[in-house]
Write a structure and sequence with these properties.
Blueprint: E1 3-7, E2 10-12, E3 18-25, E4 30-39, E5 46-51, E6 57-59, E7 67-72, E8 77-82, E9 91-100, E10 107-110, E11 114-118
Parallel strand pairs: 2-11
Antiparallel strand pairs: 1-3, 3-8, 4-5, 4-9, 5-6, 7-8, 9-10, 9-11
Length: 120
């Protein structure tokens, strides 16, 4: 069974930092891109950042210069360093992996989500 497990959410202060981690486990044969998405109350889920297995990154305009995505391919893990937090970053953050499991083509897998709240 292929799974993604997030950790590191919680309460952050405006201007502060938080770091999210996500580890893929189970029957993944390979993982291509990994990334982070977020969904604020009453809004659609939106892309935050993605990273290819070669290290090419892509960021939403709203987080460029503040957030950094990184990846450890040996651990099938992806991280999101969030700096200069503001209240608009409050959301549930979801880890995403585009991977392949036995008898399947590449498809998207999602974590259960971790709450990030930015408030003083």
């Amino acid at each position: 069974q292929a799974q993604l497990a997030e950790s590191g959410g919680g309460l952050g202060q405006p201007g502060g930092s938080l770091r999210l981690s996500c580890a893929a486990s189970g029957s993944f044969l390979s993982i291509a891109a990994m990334g982070w998405y977020r969904q604020a109350p009453g809004k659609q889920r939106e892309l935050v950042a993605t990273i290819s297995n070669g290290g090419i990154t892509n960021y939403a305009d709203s987080v460029k210069g503040r957030f950094t995505i990184s990846r450890d391919n040996a651990k099938n893990a992806v991280y999101l360093q969030m700096n200069s937090l503001n209240p608009e970053d409050t959301a549930v953050y979801y880890c995403n992996a585009r991977g392949r499991i036995p008898w399947s083509d590449y498809r998207d897998f999602w974590g259960q989500g971790t709450q990030v709240t930015v408030s003083s």
